[in-house]
């Protein structure tokens, strides 16, 4: 039988991994040319991704069969997950390498804070769930993470293949 500390530790690891995977789709926004993001495709991506995340949260809430006393922790967790949406900010168009580096470092610092917040919100949710709900949450988040991981790695592989193909022209 797991101790409370082990369960909270696992919840925080799952939260951190979920946050990392949730943030990954920003790398896959459609591009028109190497290095330039298509703003229309980028807006569509954000809208689609926000809708997808909300559907996932709604599905998870239904599976968990949350009680009224658990709603506050659930709402905090759901809000923290939605805050993991990739940033809409773009670096200045004519930024030099130093400005780009600073811009990306600032975005990563912001994302790290949001991931930490999400991990804490998940730990708080975990603390108010009963054992059956914890098993459901654990199963569903791990399933979702594996699906995203598979998508991410297959997409990155195909993207690299096309980049190598385009570079050889």
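-> sequence recovered:
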């Amino acid at each position: 039988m797991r101790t409370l500390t082990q369960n909270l530790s696992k919840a925080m690891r799952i939260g951190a991994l979920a946050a990392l995977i949730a943030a990954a789709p920003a790398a896959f926004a459609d591009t028109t040319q190497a290095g330039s993001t298509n703003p229309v495709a980028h807006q569509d991506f954000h809208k689609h991704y926000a809708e997808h995340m909300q559907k996932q949260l709604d599905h998870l809430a239904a599976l968990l069969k949350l009680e009224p006393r658990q709603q506050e922790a659930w709402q905090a967790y759901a809000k923290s997950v939605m805050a993991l949406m990739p940033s809409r900010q773009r670096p200045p168009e004519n930024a030099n390498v130093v400005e780009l580096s600073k811009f990306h470092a600032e975005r990563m610092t912001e994302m790290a804070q949001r991931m930490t917040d999400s991990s804490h919100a998940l730990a708080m949710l975990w603390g108010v769930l009963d054992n059956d709900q914890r098993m459901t949450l654990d199963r569903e988040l791990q399933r979702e993470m594996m699906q995203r991981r598979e998508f991410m790695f297959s997409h990155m592989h195909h993207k690299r293949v096309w980049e190598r193909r385009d570079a050889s022209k």
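Residues 23-36 have pLDDT under 50 and may be disordered.
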